[in-house]
Amino acid sequence: MDLAGFLAATLVAHIGFAVFITAHAALTDTDAGNWPYITLALGLAGVAGYFFYDEL
After folding, report:
1. Number of Cα atoms under 13 Å in the Cβ half of residue 1
2. Are 43 and 13 in contact (CB under 8 A)?
3. I need a surface site. Which of 11, 12, 29, 39 has the fewest CB within 10 A?
4. Cα separation of 26 and 30, whole Å?
5. Where are the domains of the chain?
6. pLDDT tens by residue, 3-56
7. Which residues are within 8 A (CB) of 4 and not within 5 positions of it... i.e. 6 or more apart?
8. Is the dihedral of CA 34, 40, 42, 45 positive or negative?
């Protein structure tokens, strides 16, 4: 895969993940916080953080 294709696929995936988190938060009536922004930067790590991070 060439670099441009890889970057395009990564960008589309990260945007999709961020949209998913925002939609999930809206549907479950919870606060997404900064997780959509973190997901845009870190991808799956942001998705995992959104679902598994538990504030004390």
Report:
1. 8
2. yes
3. 29
4. 6
5. 3-53
6. 999 989 999 999 999 999 999 999 999 999 999 999 999 998 888 888 888 765
7. none
8. positive
